[in-house]
Amino acid sequence: MNTQGQVRIETSQNIGIIHFQTEKLNVLSHALRHDLYQAIQQLLLNNEIRSIILYGGEKAFSAGADIHEFSQGIHLEFPSLHDLFDLISNASKPIVAAISGVAFGGGLELALACHHRIVHEKSQLALPEVHLGLLPGAAGTQLLPRYIGVERALNTILSGKPLKLDTLNETALIDVLTEESVLSAALAFATQSVGTVYHIKNINIESDEALLQHLENQRAQLKKHTNTVVQNAIIDAIEASIEQNFQAGFLKEQQLFKMLTESAESKSLRHAFFAEREIKNIPDLAQNIQAQPVQKVAVIGAGTMGSGIAICFLNAGFSVTLIENNQAALERGLGLIGQYFDGQISKGRLTEEKATNIQKNLSTTLDYAALSQVDLAVEAVFEDWEVKTSVLQKMDEYLPESAILASNTSTLDLNELAKVTKRPEAVVGLHFFSPAQVMPLLEIVRTELTSQQTLVTALDIGKRLRKVAVVAGVCDGFIGNRMLNEYLRIAGLLIDAGASPYQIDQALEQWGMAMGPFRMCDMAGNDIGYLIRKQQLKMNPNKKFSGIADLLVEQQRLGQKTKKGWYDYSQGNRRGDQDAEVIQLIEDYRQAQGIEAKTFSNEEIVERCIYALTNEGFRLLEEGIALRSSDIDVVYLAGYGFPRWRGGPMFYAEQQGLDVMKNRIQQFAEDLYSDASFWQIPTLLAKKVA
Ligand code: NAI
């Protein structure tokens, strides 16, 4: 295997320069490691050469290890990063890393193995393994403390953030920090500094009380959080760099790294990482279709969503025309947008000048004729069939022939909405989540008639907005909300059967959900769920819902906005306090229904709620609404506070074993108090288990 000429040697006087540049930012795949190893060996054997420079080009020294290799153990095949490390650090000639662009993870460790580093001032040096549930496993935890001190190294590895280069000039990490070409600087350096080779790994870090205390304090901090296996392992590895020789510390790092690569958390985080990269691959899209140019955008409706969507486009550099049907609503929307930018200024995220400049790209009007000037219009008007269809027809009437017609509808049938226009192929759903300027998720809803050109353009828009854009087909609730509705329904039925909303929230929050289902309903407004239930009952009168949520709404307990919902917010506590009135309401309800309350363990609550998500997820896959199960995971990670270290609902169920899920579903279906019609085994699940 080789990188097909992407590694080449150039010699200049007595210096050997190894140029390496692959399409994938010099990710240290087996092929690249192999070619680098050979090139270094060749130069080490060449008596003419007195020093060696590793140069990965301007864009990247290396973006790190090839994570794909971890699951099959290819990362350990000769030459592994460790073999490269040994070759470099034991070399008899000085090896200099010339770093420009990114040096991440294994890429930075490769540079740490070198005897010297010449660094461009704009480059980014980081050990971001923690985000994948790992620690740097090619001596990073042993070398970085030796270069920049234990505390700094620990912070860097725990945070995964790039090092602040201008603070490192005094350390052994950086020999030269330059704004010029790193290759020229490395050549000048190598010419002057030919001589003995010393390596930092031979220096031991002395122990001292303050240092050990610092590590203990960090461990104590972690006790306040759940799921800190990785962070604790990082502290253990760093501790192993103190007071003992490199080899002993390195051995410890290897044990911890192996433990982490095999952990469920790291597998989940790696799954999430790949799942997020997979979403843009749409299997049936023709390769040659280009996104249409979109620069001018109209947002119709300046309510909660419309103003948030306008902010998203403004922040991404589009010019935006906000259209309303009444002046008061337009001004309210403008007020919301203004408030947002003021907030950004006061939080120091934007300068006043920048905020003003961005807002210069915003115009407002009550006249739909303004649509004739834009490339894309997104409607975010009332969720009402008559209102939406009339707005879509106006969009059709005024928009230029090539424009895209997008709708932010969350519940209406987009296949039917598209058909009220004369160009259904140009209609697509852009389903933002509230608050649109904050939530990363965007569902791109493709109707039966959406053209490939329109879809490609929508994907491009999603990318430019820096959203996590997942393609979904048309159905009630698309991917995210359709699953959520079942999750909430099953959670509601658990209350009927005997659990309290507080136990349910607590069980799911302890398990890792950012917010329990009832706290979430209180935040969104219980009236919204009420309307959805009524709507669903119209379509399916036999659907089984808990009646308690309706009682709350009838008593005006709408959630945070009325200061009372499932929780009591009257004391100003944003998370809300448990409320005896709600408990009483539930007990009265059970009595009236003749229900004898059953006790549930937290585990069972979690199982029922999470399998409710997964069960519906399988149906979405069967119907082709979601393209892949990993897309469903991405929707839940980006939009619903699902714990990333559990990978997403579909991945989680797979890790537990799909046979386990199938058996549990069978058991749920037999309970008197649960919904047997929902707990039917999806064909796809049965097939996978078989
Ligand atoms: P909203 O009630 O806050 O805003 C709707 C706005 O549309 C109002 O300002 C209204 O004056 C304006 N409007 C109504 N008819 C109009 C017309 N003919 N021309 C121009 N403007 C008109 O509603 P919200 O919450 O912003 O929802 C808007 C859309 O976004 C709905 O389709 C909703 O389903 C969807 N959505 C809402 C989410 C949420 O969490 N609120 C999340 C995702 C989607």
TrEMBL record:
The keyword Oxidoreductase applies. The keyword Hydrolase does not apply. InterPro entries: 3-OHacyl-CoA_DH_NAD-bd (IPR006176), 3HC_DH_C (IPR006108), 6-PGluconate_DH-like_C_sf (IPR008927), ClpP/crotonase-like_dom_sf (IPR029045), Enoyl-CoA_hydra/iso (IPR001753), NAD(P)-bd_dom_sf (IPR036291). Pathway: Lipid metabolism; fatty acid beta-oxidation. CDD domains: crotonase-like. Residues 296-472 form the 3-hydroxyacyl-CoA dehydrogenase NAD binding domain. It catalyses: a (3S)-3-hydroxyacyl-CoA + NAD(+) = a 3-oxoacyl-CoA + NADH + H(+). It comes from the Bacteria. PANTHER family: 3-HYDROXYACYL-COA DEHYROGENASE (PTHR23309). This is Uncharacterized protein. The lineage of its organism: Bacteria, Pseudomonadati, Pseudomonadota, Gammaproteobacteria, Moraxellales.
